[in-house]
Amino acid sequence: MAIGGSEIGAWLASSGEQVGRRLLDLLPRRADWWSTREGRFGDLAAGATVALVALPLALAFGVSSGLGAEAGLVTAIVAGAIAAVFGGSNLQVSGPTGAMTVVIVPVTARFGSHGVLTVGLMAGVVLVFLALTRIGRYARYLPLPVVEGFTAGIAVVIALQQVPAALGQSSSTSKKVWQNAFDAAKHWVEHPRGAPVLVAAAVIALILLAPRKRPRLPVPLMAVALATVAVRLFDLHTHTLGHLPRTLPGPSLGFMNASELAALIPSAVAVAALAALESLLSASVADGMSVNQRHDPDRELFGQGLANLAAPIFGGVPATGAIARTATNVRAGASTRLASLLHAVILGAVIFVAAPLVGTIPVAALAGVLLATTVRMVASTSLLPVIRATRGDAAVLLLTLGVTVIFDLVTAIAVGVGVAVVLALRQVARSVSVDDELPIDHAGQSDEERQLLNEHIVAYRFDGPLFFAAAQRFLLRLTETADVRVVILRMSRVTTLDATGAHVLGEAIEHLERRGITVLLSGIKPGHDGVIAALGVADHLRSDGRVFPDTPTAITEARQLVQTLARA
User: Which of 96, 101, 114, 488 could form a disulfide with 459 if both were Cys (CB 3.0 to 4.6 A apart)?
Assistant: First the structure.
C-alpha cells in the first residue's frame, strides 16, 4: 500500500505536536519557584554553605580533569545554575564530580580540551533525548550492589589519580591510573619531596577530623586556605594553580572532523550514562533526607542535559548532580531550588572578587581534598553490609568495583547489572511459595481486612520475591498509604530477599515513620532475617518489640497501639 505525502505530513505534524507537548512538560513551572517566597532565608544560608563546600571541590575536579581549575569553577557556576532552574529536584546541587573526572581523563589524554568539551555537548544531547523519551524512571531498578560497587571503584580511581599531585609530581594522563600512581610513587622514593606530602596530609587530617567537633564549619575550604597561607609563609616548594581568569572564559569549542566525532561517541555515551545515573541517585538521596520532597526523574535528566550543553560553551567540563553537595544542601536547611541557584551565583562572585587569591592555592592541597573525599565516599557506602547480605550480592559488588578500577564505569555497570539479573533469575527459579497466615478472599478484601481499615490499620502482604527489580514497586505502594495509624508488613510470603529489597524495605519504614505511622513486621523467615540484620534494617523495631512471628499477634498489638493513641 502506497503512502502519500499527505500521510507522511500528518504523521510528522502529529509527532512534532507530541514532542512539543512533552517539551512543555519538562520546562520549569510557576509552582517550582512560588514556594521560594517562604523559604528564602533558609535557602540563602544553605546556598552560601554549599558554595563554601563546593569551591575547593570545583577547583580540585577541574585540575584533576586536565582542563585546569577554571574549568571546574565554570562548570560549577554555569551547570549549577542551569540545572537548578531546569532540573527535576528542588534540592539537587550540580557541578563537576569525581566520578565524571574518571571518565574525562582518558578523553583529555587522547583528544585534548576540545575533545572533552565536544563530549560534554554530545552527552547533553543524549540526556535531553533520554528525558524526552521518559527513560529516567528506569534508573530506580539499578541493584544496590552495583551502585555500591561502582561508587567504591570510583573512590579508588580518584585516589589513584591524586597520588602524583600529592607527591609533588606531574601526572601523565596517557597511562592507566594505577600505573601512573605507581610510577609517581617510585619516582618520589628516588627523589623525595617532603613539602607536597606534608600539605596533602595536613589537609586530609583536618577534613576528616575537624567535622567531628565542628560539623557545620566549611572544613574543606578552611583546610585549603590554611595550607595556602602555610605555603606562602614558609616558602614551601610546591606549585600552585597559577593565574585564574576574573571573568567567565569565552567559547572554547574547536572544530573536529567526522572521524574524531565518531571516536568520541562511546565517551559521550559513557558521560551521559554516568550523568543520568549519578544525578538520579543524588536526587533520590535528597528525597530520602527530606520530608514531602519527590523529584521528577525525566525533568532532572532534562536539566542535566541543558547544563551539559551550556557548560562546554564557556570552557566547562561535563557535570552531574553531586551527592555530597546535595546532602550538604539539605542538611543546611534548603527547602527550594533557590539554594542551588544561589550557590552558583556565589561561586560566580568568587571569580570576579577573589580570582588572584584562588590562583595561589597549592595543587597538593586540592589533592588532599580529593583524597579525603574518597575516604568519605567509601565510609558512606554499605560495602560491608552488602557483602554480608548474600554471596550473590557480594560477588556483584566486588565484580563491579574491580571492573570500574581496571576498565571503566559503563563497562562496570553493564557487567554488574548483567550478573545481578542472572543471579536474581536463578533465585526466583529456586524460590518456593509459602502459605498465607490469614484467609484472604482474592476477589476482594476479607471481612477482617475491612475491619482493620476501619480501625486505621493496614496489613500489607508481600507475595513472591522482594529483590532489586520489584523493590521499588513495593516502596511506591507503601508510601501511598493514607489515613492510617499502624501498618503491618507481612513478610511470610516473601520468597526471595536481597540487599536491594532489604534496603528499600528500610526506606519504606523510615518514610512511614516520618509521617507518624507506626510500623510492625510479622512472619520474617530465618533466611531473610539475616539479610535484614546485615543491613541494619528495622533494628529499632526489634528493640521496641515490634517484630512478631505471625500476623495475628501483630494485629493484636496494632489494635492495642491504636487504642492507646486514641486515649492519648
Answer: 488
Distances (CA, A) of 452 to 161, 308, 518: 58, 52, 14
| 446: CB partners within 8 A, 6+ apart | 438, 439, 440
Cβ 202 vs Cβ 180: under 8 Å: no
Residue 291 has a CB neighbour count (10 Å cut-off) of: 9
Q: Supply the pLDDT for residue 443.
A: 39
Span 415-436, pLDDT tens digits: 998 998 888 777 765 554 333 3
* Interacting residues of 394 by C-beta distance below 8 A, sequence separation 6+: 145, 386, 387, 388
State phi, psi for 466 to the nearest 5 degrees: -115, 80
What whole-number distance in Å separates Cα of residue 218 and Cα of residue 56?
A: 10
C-alpha cell at 105: 581523563
Q: Residue 459 corresponds to which cell in the numbers above? A: 496489613
User: CB–CB of 160/330 below 8 Å?
Assistant: no
CA-CA distance, 180 to 174, in Å (whole number)? 9
Phi and psi dihedrals of 242, rounded to 5?
85, -165
Over residues 213-246, the pLDDT tens digits come to 777 677 888 888 899 899 888 877 777 887 677 7
d(CA 94, CA 80): 5
Residue 78 Cα to chain centre, angstroms: 20
Residue with cell 527535576: 88
Rounded to the nearest 5°, which phi and psi values hold at 522? Answer: -145, 150
Alpha-helical regions (H) of 248-322? 258-289, 297-310
| Burial classification of residue 234, based on how many CB atoms lie within 10 Å of its CB (0-12 exposed, 13-18 middle, 19 or more buried) | exposed
Question: Of 544, 52, 80, nearest to 306 (Cα)?
Answer: 80
Q: How far is CA 277 from CA 37, 148, 282, 494, 501, in A?
A: 31, 13, 9, 29, 19
Predicted confidence (pLDDT) at residue 167 exceeds the cutoff of 60:
yes
Instruction: Give tens-digit pLDDT for 453-481.
Output: 778 888 888 777 776 655 555 665 665 66
